[in-house]
Amino acid sequence: MGSPHMEEGSGDKLARKARESPFMPIGLAGLAIVCGIGAYKYKNRGAMSTSVFLMQLRVAAQGTVVAALSLGLAYTMANEYIFNKKEDK
User: Fold this and answer.
1) What is the rounded CA–CA span in Å between residue 53 and residue 42?
2) What are the residue ranges of helices labelled H in the chain?
3) How far is the C-alpha of 12 from the C-alpha of 66, rounded, in Å?
4) How many whole angstroms separate alpha carbon 59 and alpha carbon 85?
5) Cα(41)–Cα(22) distance, integer angstroms
6) pLDDT digits (tens, 9 = 90+) for 24-44
7) Are the C-beta atoms of residues 65 and 34 closer than 8 Å to each other?
8) pLDDT-based confidence at 87, cuts 50/70/90?
């Protein structure tokens, strides 16, 4: 008798995590968008060195994910403490 999560596939696990924290997919999408824009802009970086460009890209990607996580935390705290949507046990 194992945990109910042991037999789930990766798609099921991602769907469960998205239901538990709705801003996680937004953070992942933001990360993918920043990486896509960075790959596109890499060709037009001008005289900027590759290491500086990648450093700035990393900071932008991390900022996007941290912002999404912060919004998710604020959303969860508002639901739990302000709107009292969580049932008392």
Assistant:
1) 8
2) 10-20, 24-42, 50-77
3) 24
4) 35
5) 30
6) 788 788 888 888 888 888 888
7) no
8) low
Burial 43-73 (b: 16+ CB within 10 A, else e): eeeeeeeeeeeeeebeeebeebbeebeeebe
- Chain centroid to CA 72: how far? 9
- Give dist(CA 72, CA 27) in Å, integer: 9
Residue among 19, 17, 61 nearest 37 (CA): 61
Give the C-alpha distances (Å, rounded to integers) separating 12 from 8, 19, 25, 72. Answer: 6, 11, 14, 21
